[in-house]
Design a protein that fits this description.
The protein is α+β, with helices and mostly antiparallel strands. The chain is built from 5 helices and 4 strands, in the order αααβαβαββ. It has helices spanning about 15-25, 55-60, 75-80, 95-115, 140-150, and strands spanning about 90, 120, 160-165, 175-180. α4 crosses α5.
Length: about 180
C-alpha cells in the first residue's frame, strides 16, 4: 500500500478575467429558436392492417440468420447477392443495450412506415471477439442481442429476412435486413 498515496489536487486559480475570456463570444439564442425535443420519437405502427393473411403465417416462424425460407426464390437470390439497395443505416456504436433496443425498434418501424425495403443495422463486432484468453473482455453485447430483438413481437411482422452482409457493408458487425413491402 506504500505505493498508493493520497492524491492532493490543487484548486486552480481562476479569476473573473479568465471567465470573461471564455464567454466573450457567447451569444443568446433568438427567442423564436425551437425548443429541443425532450422525448425520443416513438412510432406506433399496427402491423395487422398492413400484412395480408398469407404473409401472417410466416410471421409466427422465428427469424434465423441467412434463412430465406419464407421468401420467393427470385427475392431470396436477390437478397443473398445483396442486390437490394440499402435505403437506411442505423449505427449502434457507443449505445447502451437499453438505448440500442429502443433505437432498433423505432428504426425498423420508421423504415417500414417510409416504405423502405432494405436497411442495415451496424452493431459492431465487439471488443476482442476472438480473444479467449481474457475472460473479462467484452464480447459484443449488441452483436448478440440485436438478432434476438428482430424476433420481438413489435418488429418481427415487418421483417422478411436478415443476414450478415459482405465485409464491404460491415461484415459480421452489421445486419442486412429485408423488410416486408408495405401494403395498403
Amino acid at each position: 500500500m506504500k505505493h498508493l498515496q493520497k492524491l492532493k489536487l490543487k484548486q486552480p486559480d481562476y479569476d473573473s478575467s479568465d471567465w470573461e475570456a471564455v464567454i466573450k463570444d457567447v451569444q443568446k439564442l433568438p427567442k423564436d429558436y425551437p425548443e429541443p425535443q425532450s422525448a425520443p420519437l416513438i412510432i406506433d405502427i399496427s402491423t395487422e392492417h398492413h400484412i395480408s393473411a398469407t404473409e401472417l403465417k410466416d410471421v409466427d416462424a422465428e427469424l434465423v440468420i441467412d434463412s430465406t425460407d419464407n421468401i420467393d426464390n427470385q427475392t431470396a437470390k436477390k437478397f443473398k447477392r445483396e442486390e437490394f439497395k440499402v435505403e437506411a443505416v442505423l449505427d449502434l456504436h457507443g449505445q447502451t443495450e437499453k438505448n440500442a433496443y429502443d433505437k432498433v425498434v423505432n428504426f425498423i418501424k420508421q423504415s417500414y412506415a417510409d416504405n423502405k425495403r432494405c436497411i442495415i443495422i451496424i452493431t459492431g463486432k465487439g471488443i476482442n471477439p476472438h480473444n479467449d484468453e481474457d475472460i473479462f473482455a467484452a464480447r459484443g453485447i449488441l452483436k448478440t442481442a440485436v438478432p434476438n430483438w428482430l424476433n420481438s413481437p413489435e418488429v418481427r411482422p415487418l421483417i422478411l429476412a436478415y443476414k450478415h452482409p459482405s465485409e464491404a457493408k460491415g461484415g459480421s458487425g452489421a445486419l442486412y435486413i429485408l423488410l416486408r413491402r408495405k401494403r395498403g
